[in-house]
């Protein structure tokens, strides 16, 4: 028969169990020897001295001769020893200590300290016991006082609510007034700016007219000097409407423009010519403004229309 792995495992387990049993028996035997110590007799040991009987006195020898024979002891009863017990006797239970006690020690009762009575018993006994009518009257008075307090509290809450509403209404009114003042100041500021622009336009038109009059005397070439001045002003206004003045170009700075156009106001080219007080950014911006402003003013200015137009442009805001 072939031995399997299960048989091998079972044999190993049985061998281990047998060794454990032997080990436990050895431990039990050692414990038995320790728990049964030899008991020693109390007192000092017995000492004896051998003496020759012939060396004793005559009286001592007679006394020894007259002493009775000692009784023979009965043979001891031999009892058959019982079968040795392999199980050790039960061990005594250890004496429980305080910390190992099954229940914690109960705390000692606290000594009762009487509290003094805050009410004088003599005064209490001296006061008369209230009657039911007096007790009812007292309760009614208390209810009336509670009602008065409730009414007063409601009145105060209502007054506080009205005060908060009044403060809120006043704050809203002040906010509306401030908004109206801001709008009024903005309108006044815009009106002043518009008035200033109109004044600047009028001054520019007047200067353009004077310059045109000085450049071409009245009646020279059969042109109307007044119409030419209005044409110059219309051109300037059309270009200003499309121009955003750079910060590098100061107000009142002048620049000469050479504009080539077709009948109807279509611009062919716009170039800056000397003298010009603008920097490079200002020159490019004014040339771009001329191109954006096309078609330039033409209707009504046919008698003074020129294909190549020279315009003395003055920097100012729109």
TrEMBL record:
Keywords: Membrane, Transmembrane, Transmembrane helix. Residues 135-176 have a biased composition (Basic and acidic residues). InterPro entries: Tol-Pal_TolA. The chain crosses the membrane at residues 12-32. The keyword Transmembrane helix applies. The keyword Transmembrane applies. This is Cell envelope integrity protein TolA. It comes from Marilutibacter chinensis.
């Amino acid at each position: 028969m072939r031995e399997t792995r299960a048989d091998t495992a079972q044999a190993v387990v049985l061998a281990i169990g047998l060794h454990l049993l032997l080990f436990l028996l050895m431990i039990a035997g050692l414990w038995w020897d320790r728990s049964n110590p030899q008991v020693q007799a109390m007192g000092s040991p017995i000492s004896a001295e051998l003496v020759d009987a012939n060396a004793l006195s005559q009286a001592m020898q007679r006394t020894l001769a007259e002493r009775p024979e000692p009784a023979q002891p009965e043979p001891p009863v031999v009892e058959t020893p019982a079968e040795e017990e392999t199980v050790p006797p039960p061990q005594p239970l250890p004496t429980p200590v305080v910390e190992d006690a099954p229940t914690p020690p109960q705390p000692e009762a606290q000594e009762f300290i009487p509290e003094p009575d805050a009410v004088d018993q003599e005064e209490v006994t001296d006061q008369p016991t209230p009657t039911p009518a007096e007790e009812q009257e007292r309760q009614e008075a208390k209810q009336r006082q509670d009602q008065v307090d409730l009414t007063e509290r409601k009145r105060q809450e209502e007054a506080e609510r009205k005060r908060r509403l009044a403060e809120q209404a006043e704050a809203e009114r002040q906010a509306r007034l401030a908004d109206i003042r801001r709008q009024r100041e903005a309108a006044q500021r815009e009106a002043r700016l518009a008035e200033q622009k109109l004044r600047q336009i009028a001054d520019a038109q007047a200067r353009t007219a004077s310059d045109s009059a000085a450049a071409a005397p009245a009646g020279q070439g059969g042109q109307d000097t007044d119409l030419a001045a209005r044409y110059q002003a219309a051109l300037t206004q059309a270009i200003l409407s499309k121009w955003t003045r750079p910060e590098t170009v100061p107000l009142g700075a002048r620049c000469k423009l050479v504009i080539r156009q077709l009948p109807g106001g279509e611009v062919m080219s716009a170039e800056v010519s000397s003298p010009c007080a603008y920097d490079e950014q200002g020159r490019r911006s004014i040339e771009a403004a001329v191109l954006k402003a096309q078609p330039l003013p033409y209707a009504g200015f046919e008698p003074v229309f020129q294909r190549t137009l020279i315009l003395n442009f003055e920097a100012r805001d729109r």
